[in-house]
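Slide 14.
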Amino acid sequence: MLNRLNRNLLALTATLALAGCASQPSSTPNKVSEGPPRAMLWVGNSFFYYNNSMHGHVSGLVQGGNKTVQHRGVSVTISGSGVDWHDMSSYLSGGIGKYSFLPGNEIKFNPAGRQFDAVMFMDCSQCPIHPQLGSVFHEYAKKNADTIRAYGAQPVLFMSWAYKDKPEMTQQLAAQYQKAGKAIGAKVVPAGLAFANSIQKRPSLDLYVADLRHPSLAGTYLGAATVYASLLNQSPVGNSYTAGLPADVALHLQQVAWDTVQAFGQ
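Slide 15: predicted structure.
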């Protein structure tokens, strides 16, 4: 009887081990997708989800562009979250993105396997420059990049913007995001620099809501236009999608996004 119990325990252990392996990336590294991402996972916090989610505005710009790229985005956000609040492996193990909605409320079941070509992530708005959390940002930038590449996707960093009343944060955040991007070999979307450039060119256009931190619709649109220009290699200037903003405002933001990405030169 003891032998039978031992055999049962061994069988159970093997079953659990196999079940655990099922949610892990292949032991053989997947080939990392190159070029503009056709499907991207956004991992972050309220800076992404304000104004009906920035990823939706990127989709709008794709639809309003010249149709030479295809792109869809899925957002996974936690309010107030830092980069270490997210379990990247669980997001990439196959559940998220396995089906899409089509016109007419039809469902498209996507092929099994990798669902995203890229994962763009950000830290909390002040974490990369906080004296107690800055090291956590760099630690998890490396951990997340390794995990994302193990699943065959590109890691991308989203450089967030300064608080309205603390403009000195712009260069501080830019320095840390560029340092992390260089260390992990990842593209950085310079949204924070785009905010500063817009404020310099058109200070009357408010990119913030009343809390001086979160984006107004214009701020979200500028972030989306910067992502579009940076990752899809497309100029947003003249794009027909304006998110309901006045045409002159949208054109200003499109131009700032494109000029910022071109000057950033990554």
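Speaker note: The chain has one domain: 38-264.
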